[in-house]
Structure formats: C-alpha cells, structure tokens
Write a structure and sequence with these properties.
Elements: E1 8-13, H1 20-29, E2 33-37, H2 43-60, E3 65-69, E4 84-87, E5 92-96, E6 106-108, H3 112-117, E7 123-126, E8 131-138, E9 142-149, E10 151-154, E11 159-160, H4 173-185, E12 189-192, H5 198-208, E13 213-218, H6 221-225, H7 227-233, E14 236-240, H8 241-247, H9 253-267, E15 271-274, H10 289-301, E16 305-308, H11 310-313, H12 318-333, H13 338-342, H14 354-368, E17 372-379, H15 383-390, E18 397-401, H16 404-409, E19 416-420, H17 431-441, E20 450-456, E21 465-472
Parallel strand pairs: 1-2, 1-16, 2-3, 3-12, 5-6, 12-13, 13-14, 14-15, 15-16, 17-18, 17-20, 18-19
Antiparallel strand pairs: 4-10, 5-9, 7-8, 7-11, 8-9, 20-21
C-alpha cells in the first residue's frame, strides 16, 4: 500500500466511489484523506460512507482523515422560458427580484444582498465566468447591465462578483444543519466555503469549537486581501482554484497559489491545492501532460496535499486517477533537488519561542547528521507536529499523539504518519521506548540508526515542547 510519499492525497467521495470496494481501492492506490462534499448527497449517504472509511482505517492500521466540505452560499440566477438564451455582446440585460421566468432581456437574481452591494461599473460573471456583465444602473431591486462578453445562458447558473464584498455569511442555514450533523459524525476537518474575511473564520470557530479543525477555502479576492490574518486564524487552507480563477484574473492564479502556499508554510498551516488537477481523467484513463506538470508544480511548491474532485467523485477512472497522482508525487519527491526546494530559508533568528527553536534544531539534526532514520514528535494537540512539518525535513516524521482524533487530523499534513498512544503521556520515562517501538512498527530505519525525538515537560501540556534528544534503534 503506497504510504511512502510526504505529499498527501485528498480524494472526494461521490457516486463513482461510494462502495466499500471502491473506497478500499482508493486507499490501496494512495489516498490519505477523504472529502465529503455536502453540496451533494444526503446525510444518510455521508454517514454510510464515513463508516466505510473508518472501517478501512481499522483494517489497514491507518488514521485516514475525513474532511466535511460545507456548501456555503450559492449565488445563482433564476429560470428561463426556454432551455437557454443567447446574450449578445453590447446588448443590455436586466437582473431583478421578480419571481418570473426570464428571456433574452432579463432574468431573476434572487439575492437581495447582491443588489445592496452592487455599484455602477461593477462586473458580474455568470456561468463560471463565461459571460461578463457590467452594471449600468442599480436601484437595489433591479440592475441594468451591459453584456461585455456574451454567450449561451441557462437556468440556475452561478453568479460571481469579483472585488465585491457581499453582506452574506459564509455559513448558511443549510450549512449549520450540515455542520451539526458532520460534527456529530466525528469528522476531522471542516472545510469552510465563501470565506470573505477573517471574521468568517472566527464565526465558524465559535460554532465548531475544538470538535474539528477548520480549512478555509480561498476563492474570494477579499480573503486574499486579508491572507495572513485568514491563514493565522485557520487550522488549514485550501487553494480553491475553481472560483479563485473566476473571481480573479485567471492568469494570476498560479502566482496566487505560490503566495498562499508560502504564507501557509510561514505559519505552519497545512495547505491543499485543489481543482482540475487531473480533470481529463474524469473521462480518460490517462491525464494530459499539462495536468501532470500542474500536480508536480504543487508538490515542488511544498503543498501538504493535492486534491481530486470529480476525478474520484464522478469520474470513470477514480482508482487510476489516485494511482497516477501518487506516481507523480513519488517521482517529484525522488528528484535530487526536491528537498532543497521545499525547505524554508529559515535560521534561528526566525524562531518565535522554545517550541519553534526545538523543532528547527531537530529538523537540522535529521538533515545533516549521518545514520538518521527519522523524527519523532510527541504532541498532545498536534501543533508541535505541524511546526516540525513546516520545516520539511528530509526524514520521515512520526507523530505520537494523545488521541485518535488528533492523529486523524494530522493525516493531511506533509510527511507525517500519526500514532495515538495516550498511555505514554502519563509517564515520561516511556518516551524513548515508545518512540523506538513505533519506529519499528512503521518500518522506519535500521538497527544502529538514530531517531531525533522532541517532546515537552510537563508532558501533555500544549505548547511546552522543550526537549530534544537522539535515540538509537
């Protein structure tokens, strides 16, 4: 079973992969974490799929991660009298609140918040950015627009408003119901859509508490404007390139991706690169050369995980897509330049506290000393392990945590294999013996090689990493 790469694979479960047999195939092909998309499927279906994932975790002795992706606000137009209409460049087109079928001259836009925010000159994008409108007039119920880029338009297509911050909560009433259900199921991460500012993350934190960690999806320009604050307030970040490429000029997405990944690395937050990574494998057994390069580029950037969406949720070749992604990751990580490219330019003057200095020193020890097999982090909360992963050491990271819940959350973190062992946190004298036993269980290192171990005393206290030593296998 391929678990030898540092960069993790997050796969979306859907109709193509909802059976025990298919989920097992994905695990055996290299999946580390599963995304449950709450834009689709029923609660009963999600509960059944989560049980299958937990069963696979038990069967293969791995802490597979489960991510619940909330739908967020969906801004869509209404319906038309015909299947579709054609909007011509230069014509006028009206958006209004009337609950009536539209035509070539108007359509319902049932979102009062949009009308409240629109100003003359603002741009609206319909149908994934394929149609562009410019606002000519707006009276808070009716907006007259000019078609700048025309095309076919059909019912319920999405609406994007680049550079317009809407007075809409990131968490809808549907999301609240889905969130309560997901937390009761015991998901490990909650993915927050439509993040416009750091306040959206704080609101989610108030609802979620410590029941799960939060991934903020970066898909709005206003969130990019507050990038550092959003990253610091979140537990993880997703580069949601689909909507990001509609809301922002598409040519800026690669640069934004690198900027987001770098910022996440700076603050030790896991970062996932998502959307259209192997899109052609929805219908084809092999990807395009450009898609292979795209995945490889994310791995070279140092992303913690790369994500498959429709490729595994609805595609014809889900296991093949996972296997291909794993092969690409493996090829990149075996390149001689990989570790020098992903390791941060960091020296001791950058360290903020003792835990930061300890993890930096441990990473450097594992990189420069001979006969080093790997690193062991004792981390009750998981944050010391996140700090170690930020350094991107050239040796495996084994995390020994206080609980299964924390071990599962670490499943999408770069280079980490997590093990729950609550007993050792009650007795500091067992740290070395437990570390050696887990390294042997994980088949890390050979007899005579060394492990670099970090821990804290008093043991189990969050943020108290202050011990570092080497133990010989």
């Amino acid at each position: 079973m391929p678990i030898n790469t540092h960069t993790k694979i997050l796969a979306t479960i859907g109709p193509s992969t909802a059976t025990p047999e298919m989920i097992e195939k994905l695990v055996l092909s290299g999946v580390d974490a599963f995304r449950f998309n709450f834009s689709h499927g029923t609660h009963a279906e999600h509960a059944e799929r989560l049980k299958i994932v937990r069963d696979m975790s038990e069967k293969y002795g791995r802490h597979l991660t489960v991510v619940a992706d909330l739908q967020g606000p969906k801004l869509r137009i209404g319906t038309f009298k015909t299947d579709k209409v054609m909007l011509e460049k230069g014509q006028k087109f009206t958006l209004d609140m009337l609950d009536e079928n539209g035509d070539e001259t108007r359509v319902q836009l049932p979102h009062k918040e949009i009308f409240d925010a629109l100003k003359v000159g603002d741009k609206l994008l319909l149908n994934d950015g394929n149609i562009e409108l410019e606002v000519l007039k707006n009276d808070n119920y009716v907006a007259e627009t000019l078609v700048k880029v025309g095309g076919c338009l059909s019912a319920h297509k999405g609406v994007n408003l680049p550079n317009v911050k809407l007075p809409i909560s990131a968490i809808t009433q549907k999301d609240k119901k889905d969130l309560e259900f997901a937390l009761n199921l015991g998901v490990d991460w909650v993915c927050l859509s439509f993040v416009q500012s750091v306040e959206d993350v704080r609101m989610a934190r108030n609802l979620i508490g410590d029941k799960a960690w939060i991934i903020s999806k970066l898909e709005k320009p206003s969130a990019i404007d507050e990038l550092e604050d959003v990253v610091k307030e979140s537990d993880g970040i997703m580069v949601a390139r689909g909507d990001l490429g509609v809301e922002c000029p598409i040519q800026t997405v690669p640069v934004l991706q690198k900027r987001i990944v770098k910022t996440c690395r700076k603050y030790g937050r896991p970062v996932i690169v998502a959307t259209q990574m192997l899109e052609s494998m929805i219908v084809n057994p092999t990807p395009t050369r450009a898609e292979v390069s795209d995945v490889a580029n994310a791995v070279f950037d140092g992303a913690d995980a790369v994500m498959l969406s429709a490729e595994t949720a609805a595609g014809s070749y889900p296991a093949e897509a996972v296997a291909m992604m794993h092969q690409i990751i493996n090829e990149v990580e075996e390149d001689a330049s990989y570790y020098s490219r992903v390791q941060l330019d960091k020296d001791l003057s950058d360290c903020d506290d003792m835990a930061d200095a300890i993890t930096y020193a441990a990473s450097e020890m594992s990189n420069i000393l001979p006969n080093m097999a790997g690193l062991i982090t004792y981390s009750a909360s998981g944050f010391t392990t996140l700090s170690m992963a930020r350094e991107r050491p050239a040796r495996p990271i084994l995390a020994i945590t206080l609980s299964t819940e924390v071990a599962r959350r670490l499943g999408i973190v770069w280079g980490v294999r997590a093990f729950a062992n609550p007993e050792v946190f009650n007795d500091i004298t067992k740290l070395q013996d437990t570390a050696l036993a887990i390294a042997r269980q994980a088949k890390i290192g050979k007899e005579g090689e060394y492990l670099v171990i970090t821990a804290g005393y008093p043991i189990g206290v969050r943020g108290m990493t202050n011990l570092i030593y080497a133990a010989q296998l």
